[in-house]
Here is the input.
Amino acid sequence: MKKHWYDYLWIWAIIYFALGFFNILFAWLGMIDFLLPLALAGFGGNKYFCNNLCGRGQLFAKLGKSGCSRNKPAPRWLSSRWFRYGFLVFFLAMFANMLFQTYLVAAGASSLREAIQLFWTFRVPWGWTYTAGSVPNWVAQFSFGFYSMMLTSLLIGLIVMVLYRPRTWCSFCPMGTMTQGICQLRQMGKEKE
Here is the structure.
């Protein structure tokens, strides 16, 4: 099977998290993984990003092939419609909260929280990754919040990868659920024409 350039995007996932570990401002690069799937689904009407360009899914597949996964079927509820959309709503609520925290810092109403919050609960001091004053505080606040979300979703994906099949995360990934919804809306629009 011929390898394509995008078959190596799992390396991007590792680089992204490594860069954020040393300088939190690299968290902004994660917006590529946030906006590109939506744009490709919106313009292409398919899940090209999920199927070909998702470095995280590729990373889980690589780790699974190396023996890190039990390779057991996941419970059906993990891929059920109610769980996928419920997790998406929860994820979007956390994203909205992150944006609100960023707004508060930009407005001067709150101080910068130099901490990563794992699983939306546990604060992990991460202060060495940011030198205060190098960018506006709201830019750093967004970085900490966005990296927290990206790292939390990576950890959830790793947990379900170990317990079940390597790409179990993909069955309820919020980005995958959103792109699938966009594709369905486009299809309904075409059917009405």
Summary: Residues 115 and 127 are 6 Å apart (CA to CA). The beta strands are 115-118, 122-125. The helical segments are 10-22, 31-44, 48-53, 55-68, 81-107, 137-163, 174-192.
